[in-house]
Amino acid sequence: MLEAIIVLAILAVVFGLLLGFAAVRLKVEGDPVVDQIDNILPQTQCGQCTYPGCRPYAEAIAKGEADINQCPPGGEVVIQQLADLLGVDPKPLNEEHGEHGEKTVVVIDENECIGCTLCIQACPVDAILGAPKQMHTVIESECTGCDLCIEPCPVDCIHIVPVPETPQTWKWPAPPQPLEKPPREAGGST
Amino acid sequence: MKRRLWHFHGGLRLPGHKTESMQEPIQAANLPRRLTIPLQQHIGEPAEPVVEIGQRVLKGQLLARASEYISVPVHASTSGTVVAIEDRPIPHPSGLQAPCVVIDSDGRDEEIEHTPVNNYTELEPSALRNVIREAGIVGLGGAGFPAFIKLNPGPGNAVDTLILNGAECEPYITCDAMLMQTQPRRIIEGLLIMRHALQARHCIIALENNQPDAWQSLNNALEDDEKTFIELVKVPTIYPTGGEKQLIKVLTGKEVPSHGLPLDIQMVCHNVGTAAAIADTIHEGKPLISRYVTVTGDTVGQPCNLEVRIGTPFEAVLEQCGWRDDRNDEILMGGPLMGFTVDNPAVPVIKTTNCILSWPTTSEQQTPMPCIRCGECARVCPAQLLPQQLYWYARAKNFDRVQDFNLFDCIECGCCAYVCPSHIPLVQYYRFAKTEIWAQERDKKKADQARERHEFRQQRIERKKQEDEERKRRKKEMLKKSQGDETDGEESKKAAIDAAMARARARRGEKTPQSGGKKET
Hints:
Chain B: One of its GO terms (molecular function) is electron transfer activity. Chain B: Belongs to the 4Fe4S bacterial-type ferredoxin family. RnfC subfamily. Chain B: It is an enzyme of class 7 (translocase). Chain B: Residues 362-391, 400-430 form the 4Fe-4S ferredoxin-type domain. The complex is a heterodimer. Chain A is mainly α. Among the domains of chain A are: 31-97, 3-methyladenine DNA Glycosylase II, Chain A, domain 3; 102-164, Alpha-Beta Plaits (2-Layer Sandwich). Chain A is built from 5 helices and 4 strands. Chain A has helices spanning 2-25, 32-40, 54-63, 75-86, 118-122, and strands spanning 104-108, 128-129, 137-138, 158-162. In chain A, helix 2 crosses helix 3 (54-63). The radius of gyration of chain A is 27 Å and the shape is elongated. Chain B is of the alpha/beta class. Chain B has a domain at 19-106 and 126-342: Rossmann fold. Chain B contains 15 helices and 17 strands. In chain B, strands 1-14-13-17-15-16 form a 6-stranded mixed sheet, with helices on both faces. In chain B, strands 2-8-7-4 form a 4-stranded antiparallel sheet, with no helix packed on it. In chain B, strands 11-10-9-12 form a 4-stranded parallel sheet, with helices on both faces. Chain B is globular, with a radius of gyration of 34 Å.
């Protein structure tokens, strides 16, 4: 009897220590769900979701504070992927945050730019190049089309242009959907 | 010894429509007044132009050089003046424009001097590949993959069999058959060069059994000692035998693994036209500036094969064969199953234009009906896929599932759509899904890049904030310190003044060295 109690007590202590050690040693840094959500978001960092960037929005979704339909640049595709990941029903994009449109980038009208650097400070991905009182320019391949630089510009010299489609980026259109049911003869039932 | 042949899954026996365009011998196409030469006529990156507007160029002169590894140069197809380097319509299913070099021909067709390779067997395979690359040679069978890459087995890979693909399985197209009939020696010379580049042990030239004349002429052209390592094989005429993976299966019984290359099973497959182009490059030093094109179809008066300069407008080629512009015909580049409709007849012939097909526009499009699950598509699929499943998932835009069903093993041969009793445009669904998936991959890459840049910026701002705070803190400390022991501060101030005065004196002393410069120091 006594032996059994001692053995069990020792076992309990050993396993307790093991668990305690594992909890410290194998601790998961951060929230993996946040990473997964962040991975799906388009990383425009545009703030249209009302959060200051994609990662804060991902954190808010993970905490349950934000809905999955607040990302206009991502559109339906992102909502669907988020719904799949989180096991919730997809819903239409919340119009309050904006509409899902075609991809755009910005260009600076270099004749009008006064070199104030305000847009450089606003760009979340460092895609604008320039120096005080020097002409600025947008690195088009890095621009996410967040449009955050447009508001601060004092001379309105930044313009939104659609990303041109090339034969390399062109997509085949979805074929017209076939009729769901063959046209019925008049008087046909069921 | 007769070679044992295998069968690939599915396939179709289609009406050939080949005799129409094989009545006439190959002729040269007329020299057009203006040539439009796209900078990208191959899979990979577009070439970079090296000529300027207004510059006079000669036939065969380099117009644009290869920019990346998967890229080849582009050459002038005739002599003339470069009048524009800008976006022009190209033959592409999108109907979009792409950068082109436009040359106004001067009619003289002056050629630059060529430097042939005298004895290619003395060249290293890598040097030989470079010569082939500089000549701008791409696969002429249809896909247009740079040929020099497919002639590089890579370190540690041995090539057992080199297959020359003369199985032109798609209806209407006869340019390879005519080439084999009329110029067998060029093909064999090209094969020998490829064999040297790849160090292949064994070679096969495969052609369909409905081309006895081509077989005969190749057989006559083969010398006895060459017959010991080159085998001429007739394969059954079943569409799509000419598909690389299907041909390998028929000839060897081996299957190229999914997502793999023929090289994975020690094989390399090239088109016969590519071999002829390589022979021209090595023996005559000529770059790839023209190709054989089949011009055929119901609305072409005299269907035939022409040798067409790259950059010649489709309409010029068609008009030479008795086609009229006033009927609003449907024009296709490629064959009836794998080709695509070209809306603008002014687009130029490019390196991958094997056939120009013209027929009356069918006003009555067959409306697609619901899938009845008959399974015909799966029966004919040469890649052994499940076209129905692919269709459902592509239609539902479920791009993960569609890849689980190996969408990217689909060769878009069109057999499934051909047999579909509901007339569902299946291939269009697969092409739609493929391009959507590629677009998503591009977006993902861009998003990752943006995330990295954003995170870096956040870090930089954070670091700057910390540094500012640190500086402020240090300043505050200094201030506190100086207030704490004022006497100390006054003393140091005095010392500083003294030092400054000493320095000033020293400077004065230097200016007037006679008045006791030594004393001061």
